[in-house]
Amino acid sequence: MKLRIYTHAERDLSGKVPNLWPAFMNHDQVIATFWPRLYEVYADFQLWIVDDKETIGYACTLPVKWDGVPWHDLDGVPAIEGATVALACELRDLLDGGDHAIVTGEVGAIEATGAAPLVFARGEYRPLG
Fold this sequence. Notes:
By secondary structure, this protein is mainly β. It has 2 domains: 1-64, no CATH class; 66-123, Pnp Oxidase, Chain A (Roll), CATH 2.30.110.10. It contains 1 helix and 9 strands. It has one helix at 29-41, and strands at residues 3-7, 46-51, 54-60, 71-74, 77-80, 85-96, 101-112, 118-121, 124-127. A 3-stranded antiparallel sheet has the order 1-2-3, with no helix packed on it. Strands 4-5 form a two-stranded antiparallel ribbon. A two-stranded antiparallel sheet has the order 6-7. A hairpin with a 2-residue loop joins strand 4 and strand 5. The model has no long low-confidence stretch (mean pLDDT 84).
């Protein structure tokens, strides 16, 4: 498998990939307001992943200015200092999950601080437990 990555500015591949969003995201007002503009305003930051001629995935990003948060290298991956956990993984499988994608990876390195994790539920972050 030979993968190539193109920006939306280089190649418009809209409609060539199934919608991978979970269904509930289609009803989010913030997403509905800003999502369509990503491809127009930030075309250089929207990526298409192509295997030979078939589009197999996409990534949507935004330009950000690094704010100086301390980090260190974890097996070739930036890990933010003080994060509850940091993982460095290698992609193994990208599987069809119906209305979403299932990504599996092999963990090459892990760091945990012992800090209490948070979960996002009912529209807010909450401590686990």
